[in-house]
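Ticket reopened. Same input as before:
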Amino acid sequence: MTEQRKVLVTGAGGFIGGRAVEVLHATGHWRVVGGVRRWSSAARIGRFPVEIALCDVTSPVSVRRAIAGVSHVVHCAVGSREVTVDGTRNVLQAAREAGVRRLVHVSTIDVYGSDAGELLESQPLRRTGALYGDTKIEAEEACLAAAAAGLPLTILRPSIVYGPFSKLWIVEFAQRLQRRPWPLPRERAGGICNAVYVDDVIQGVLLGLEHPGAVGEAFNINGAEWPTWFDYFTALNEHMGLPPIAAESPALASLHAWVTKPVRDAAKFALRRFQPQITALYQRSSLAKRAMKRTEAMLLAAPTPGEFRLYGRTATYPTTKAQRMLSYRPRFPLDDGLRLSAAWLRHHGFILSGHERPVT
Amino acid sequence: MARAVLVDPNTGRAAELAGRFGAAGSAASLDEVIERIDAALILTPPRLHFPLALQCLRQGKHVLCEKPLAESGAEVDELVRAAADAGVAVVVNNTRRLIPAYQAVRDRVANGSIGHVRRIGIAFGEPFDWPVAGDGYFGVRGGGRGVLADLGAHALDLACWWLGAEPSLDAYHDDSFGGTEAVAQVDLRAPGATVSIRVSWLSKLSNSFRIEGSEAVLEGSLHDFGAFTVRRGTQTRRERVEGARPFTEYGHTLLDNFIDVVVLRAAPLVSAADVRPSIALIEACYSNRRRFDVPWHEAYTRLLHD
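Engineering reply: fixed in the latest deploy. New output:
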């Protein structure tokens, strides 16, 4: 490596952005700038001798300052419409002004909507009314416009990204699996999980930054196996060393989901409206504290109707294009990825010993 | 009537806060104001505590310092000497020593009611959420000292204080790769006893303590300032302690004490000498640091070769 290139990672306080910073630094080929919205989200990347910069993507000034002197950008920041759409526009604009050599935009398979079957990159993007997918489509549209105007960029569409630091697919499932009875029977979780280990997504990021064939293209980034959701849960359960799952009956499980929906909605509403009062009550009354903890535990354990729809879906997102054009090859079979994730869970105190496990 | 000046290299922020809270003014550095003050509150990132405290003490200014007071036992000794020479005092913000439940725990251990202490375990961790306004906490700018110097300064001080002795370091592990560690494990040894402390900036730990004596076990939540549990054989009893208040109020108590120290020459509630054992241990930890086994980090090498 003759020249050390400098890469800015936006959303570096998050799950994928954080891992991108770690791996880019560890390869020794990059000077890395971790862009965070707030200093307080830098605890993870602060473990490495990387530069940390404030990069609030909703502020054009903040983005311009963070991107100054950078040759490459990995754009992972995501959030509200303002962050995902306007933020992406700001990053693209600043990248063009700064003459950035490559930009990798981390998108999602949610841009395909909720169609079934094999979904390839040539598939039209489909809005569903869900904020995440719809705003990610708008962000991709902004990317295409920037690419047409000459910015060398690559769009990655990772599937279900799991691994250390994944709140959604690792930490929350680890917490659920430790509550029994397990509420997701095999019959209700037979859809395809499309799990991809976070380091395989980072492989996509590295290819997007360097591979000549990546410019101006969008790529599905998925794992090598397509387990069912039930396979995913049971494998995680096993790696965590928990007793085998004995699920409740399919009918009872979906009843549970629908029955808890009004409670969930009411709790969300109440928290939004009355948070200070609720917090005060929680601190003052041990009875209220116990009742709230029980409700929280019940809601955590019971899947929502929306989750049941996800766990039943049979769409797949083949990576044929990334394999053909970039030689992308997933390096982490599900078993390896979950073994590493379980070791990480243990290290961070997420796996409780038998007597500490809550009962719902 | 006391007047305050806010000092911060971020002068805009210092001026804004001075305006909002009615302070007498603001400045970019201690040098600009040191001639004009009687006392200083040092609330900077940890690595600046010692040099700033020493500068104040040498010029005869009393000091209230955030924890950890310094980075080594020798630095604490130097501060104690400088304070004595100038006839001023140092108060340290190890506020947890003021919490009634913790004080009651200390009394139980000190009066022998749980027998000989065999093991102390403390787990203290929450995802980092302190609204820091600068980059002085993390990475290279954080001086490579992270959660151990932050939450660890509380946990180690409690362990030494409860034990009433200065344990020696058995092993220290953390997850620094050249920056500030976010998870740390300290294993200590004292005659007949071991101490295990885990602190984290990345996840919520049990936030509890457990002291195993030959006669009884004391357990409690680090967030419960007014109660703990005593287990003796098969019997478990919950002990309530009077006077527990919300956490921030202990900071007020220490501030009141500092004013008494400055004005009335009262004794500090937490002195530099009090925290010396835990500071010396933090120093020992950092000079013997080893990395945790972290296979999930090393796994990236699989991406580099086929």
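Chain A touches chain B through 38 residues (CB under 8 Å). The radius of gyration of chain A is 21 Å. Please confirm and we'll close it.
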